[in-house]
Design a protein that fits this description.
This protein is mostly helical and 121 residues long. It has four helices and no strands.
Length: 121
């Protein structure tokens, strides 16, 4: 098992979650149960799947959960793109979140390239 607190990608994803929370706090109330909720869950999922990956005993399980984080990062990137098109939230926070999500995806891709593929169940 790994300690997620020692992983740079986890620290970066935690920063992304924090910026995402600041950003979605500025979205219109009409998005509270739609884009706000989806965006929050995607950001949380990146960070929490990294944590869960670290609790797995096999390299294949570790890799699979990092893959889930990558999927959530792509989902968050899509949510941020919708918010850009709809002009929700401050541009500076959205730009910071976009920069962080791209950085997290690159870090996850680097991990995944080095890992054995997860086994099919």
């Amino acid at each position: 098992m790994r300690d997620f607190r020692t992983m740079k990608v986890w620290h970066k994803s935690a920063a992304l979650t924090d910026v995402t929370y600041l950003l979605i706090a500025k979205y219109p109330e009409s998005e509270r149960f739609a884009l706000v909720d989806q965006t929050r869950r995607a950001a949380q999922s990146i960070e929490l799947n990294i944590v869960e990956a670290c609790g797995k005993s096999s390299e294949g399980d570790f890799s699979r959960f990092l893959g889930y984080s990558m999927g959530s990062a792509s989902e968050l990137e899509g949510c941020l793109d919708i918010s850009r098109r709809q002009n929700f939230g401050p541009n500076d926070l959205r730009s910071k979140a976009i920069d962080l999500v791209i950085e997290v995806k690159k870090m996850l891709a680097g991990f995944l390239r080095k890992m054995p593929p997860p086994r099919r169940r």
